[in-house]
């Protein structure tokens, strides 16, 4: 990734923009470190465009900071072609050059969100990881799967120069059934979608659809408390944890089974025997079910490759800031070791109001 380009006074905006939430940091080069001017999180779906979101974000900055951002590095939830992205789960399009021109930035860069996230994984410690399957690293290739609003997949290898990351759109590959139940699920998906992809099952929206399918399998009506909830995926999880909602519990276990099969296949495709990392809000909530037998059985169920799959370590990433840390690593050029960031001294002269000065930190 090259060397750190920090220079005194340089201001850098980094952001991790997903289909549900967008997280940002404003950094400033100071001495031998970057200091943190601002950090905040925003609901993506509240805004009609990325530009509208950034307008509201930058309104929180002092006027000086708005006009002196040297670079912006934005991790975006969609395939990036050149300087442009069409978001997969938001009705947004964006162009890096247009963003830089509109907001007066020196330069702007758009990076696939999974590609950015993978740059943070090598620096994760034991407190950031929850084990799913113990094993031994078989090589230097690692797989990252993010299960959240969508389904993202990336691989990386660590070298002396940093992390070499390879993004993909593996979440949009075909959903492949392997059991009679899976075949019925495929037919259910085809009733609702023109393309039955893995993301249509292994995502927040997919979890809600999977719940409706499980209810149909058991010939019972879905619970309106789940289907009409603002966040059906979170509600399914809560109901399953209560011990009083068998359909919700069956849904979580079927989800874990399907995720295990997908993760195992993805690991084989990429020969990622160094380890598999599961990220994203849905994966974090699902962790208690991933440690059961259904995930491991389908992850390992790969015929003659089973002895190898038995030894591939699998973790759930518990850190909620891993995507933001990844794009920070890219923007600051600390690709593996992490970025030392300390709060900036509060300087009320750069704030447009006393209230604003209180949260420049």
Short description:
The protein has 2 domains: 11-118 and 321-357, ATPase, nucleotide binding domain (Nucleotidyltransferase, domain 5), CATH 3.30.420.40; 127-317, Hexokinase, domain 1.
Secondary structure elements and their pairing?
Layout: E1 11-17, E2 21-30, E3 33-43, H1 50-58, H2 63-67, E4 71-76, E5 80-81, E6 84-86, E7 93-95, H3 96-103, E8 107-112, H4 113-118, E9 129-133, E10 141-147, E11 151-159, E12 162-167, H5 180-192, H6 204-217, H7 224-227, H8 232-242, H9 246-270, E13 276-279, H10 281-290, H11 293-300, H12 306-309, E14 314-317, H13 322-332, E15 341-343, H14 354-357
Parallel strand pairs: 1-4, 3-15, 4-8, 10-13, 13-14
Antiparallel strand pairs: 1-2, 2-3, 5-6, 6-7, 9-14, 10-11, 11-12
Helix pairs in contact: 6-8, 6-9, 8-9, 9-11
């Amino acid at each position: 990734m090259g060397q750190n380009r920090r220079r005194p006074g340089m201001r850098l905006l980094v952001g991790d923009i997903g289909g549900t939430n967008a997280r940002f940091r404003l950094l400033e080069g100071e001495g031998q470190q970057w200091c943190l001017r601002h950090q905040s999180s925003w609901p993506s779906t509240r805004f009609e465009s990325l530009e509208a979101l950034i307008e509201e974000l930058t309104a929180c900055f002092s006027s000086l900071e708005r006009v002196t951002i040297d670079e912006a590095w934005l991790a975006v939830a969609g395939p990036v072609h050149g300087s442009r992205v069409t978001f997969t789960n938001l009705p947004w399009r964006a162009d890096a050059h247009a963003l830089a021109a509109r907001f007066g930035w020196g330069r702007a860069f758009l990076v696939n969100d999974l590609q950015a996230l993978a740059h943070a994984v090598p620096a994760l410690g034991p407190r950031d990881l929850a084990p799913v399957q113990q094993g031994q690293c078989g090589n230097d290739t690692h797989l990252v799967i993010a299960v959240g609003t969508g389904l993202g997949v990336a691989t990386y290898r660590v070298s002396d120069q940093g992390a070499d990351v390879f993004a993909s759109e593996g979440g949009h590959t075909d959903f492949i059934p392997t059991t009679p139940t899976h075949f019925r699920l495929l037919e259910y998906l085809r009733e609702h979608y023109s393309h039955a992809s893995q993301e249509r099952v292994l995502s927040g929206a997919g979890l809600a659809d999977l719940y409706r399918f499980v209810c149909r399998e058991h010939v019972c009506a879905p619970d309106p408390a789940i289907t009409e909830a603002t966040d059906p995926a979170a509600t399914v999880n809560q109901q399953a944890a209560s011990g009083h909602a068998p359909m919700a519990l069956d849904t979580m276990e079927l989800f874990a089974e399907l995720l295990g099969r997908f993760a195992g296949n993805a690991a084989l495709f990429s020969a990622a025997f160094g380890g598999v990392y599961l990220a994203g809000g849905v994966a974090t909530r699902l962790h208690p079910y991933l440690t059961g037998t259904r995930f491991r059985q389908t992850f390992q169920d790969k015929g003659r490759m089973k002895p190898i799959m038995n030894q591939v370590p699998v973790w759930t990433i518990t850190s909620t800031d891993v995507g933001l840390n990844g794009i920070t690593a890219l923007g600051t050029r600390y690709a593996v070791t992490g970025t030392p960031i300390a709060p900036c001294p509060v300087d009320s002269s750069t704030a447009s109001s006393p209230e604003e000065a209180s949260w420049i930190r």
